Amino acid sequence: xxxxxxxxxxxxxxxxxxxxxxxxxxxxxxxxxxxxxxxxxxxxxxxxxxxxxxxxxxxxxxxxxxxxxxxxxxxxxxxxxxxxxxxxxxxxxxxxxxxxxxxxxxxxxxxxxxxxxxxxxxxxxxxxxxxxxxxxxxxxxxxxxxxxxxxxxxxxxxxxxxxxxxxxxxxxxxxxxxxxxxxxxxxxxxxxxxxxxxxxxxxxxxxxxxxxxxxxxxxxxxxxxxxxxxxxxxxxxxxxxxxxxxxxxxxxxxxxxxxxxxxxxxxxxxxxxxxxxxxxxxxxxxxxxxxxxxxxxxxxxxxxxxxxxxxxxxxxxxxxxxxxxxxxxxxxxxxxxxxxxxxxxxxxxxxxxxxxxxxxxxxxxxxxxxxxxxxxxxxxxxxxxxxxxxxxx
Length: 393
Ligand code: NI
Description:
Layout: H1 3-10, H2 12-24, H3 33-45, E1 49-52, E2 59-64, E3 73-79, H4 106-123, E4 129-135, H5 143-149, H6 152-155, E5 160-171, E6 175-177, E7 180-181, E8 185-194, E9 198-199, H7 209-226, E10 234-243, E11 250-251, E12 254-263, H8 266-286, E13 290-296, E14 303-304, H9 306-320, E15 325-327, H10 338-343, E16 346-354, H11 374-388
Parallel strand pairs: 3-4, 3-5, 5-16, 6-15
Antiparallel strand pairs: 1-2, 2-4, 6-16, 7-14, 8-12, 8-13, 9-11, 10-12
Helix pairs in contact: 1-11, 2-4, 4-11, 7-8, 9-11
The structure holds nickel (II) ion.
Nickel (II) ion binds at residues 104, 106, 138, 165.
């Protein structure tokens, strides 16, 4: 066990209070004002210089080491936002904001980085600068993207940036790391098919957009099964099919489809868009209809750089023990830490949070972050900072 972990375990009652306070007052995308104030107040009380105002509610803590001979710096990032979910836990610190909930554990992420910041501000056992990044709007809105667009790395140049997510499906006391793609890109599409409406009894006088749209849904399935390397990963899900009215004897003029396309590799991501456009156009034409595709590029995939992933693996082993670190299987969910990694080398790791092996999963109304994990995550941040920026000799 590292010294930091032992110390952070001793003080975890306090850190758990911060976590529960944040949990009770969940706020969503770019409205994390109260959470932001709370974080800023704590950092200031520990003598940590702060910067506020990026992406509306972000707080950046600037922790200076005992020395700054190297002039080096790294970023540690936590997300602060909640979800639009009605909480169904019966815990004392249950959400006081009806319809909003910390169901993804970002309250825990914030608490872990707070605990690490406090420890680092007290010990400053490193050479250089650590930026503690408290970011808004991870769930939707891309707060990470906004911060990078607003010049985060120009203002706070980092040689590497690191992220972490809790994982209730893996036992507490374990961590998972991976080099390369960790999560998928997620892009949204809306397809509008236009035919010619008319009487259901006279199909020869109409161009049926429902029949065309149905064929399009089926044909889109072939992109993953027939155009994608079986050893690569992609998902196309059509989640919306809208057409017609209450009048069941009227062939409508238009049909609308919508869904998401996901991929681990940037090149596959680009191809999915081209394939969707090609299939939609050709199938609509085959039915005499026309179609338009609106493509909304969402979060890119999180891609860990090799050197930083290796560093994270070594640090994780020192914190949770050799046998408790394993390779993460990439997931097809999306994560906006990707924007930080598009601009800077770095790595995103997973920290186990499960208590029973049958815990409610992320985004479940019964989920509550496991407070026992706070010292583990905080010790990982501390060790990572001290290892990446070793004290000057
Ligand atoms: Ni999350």
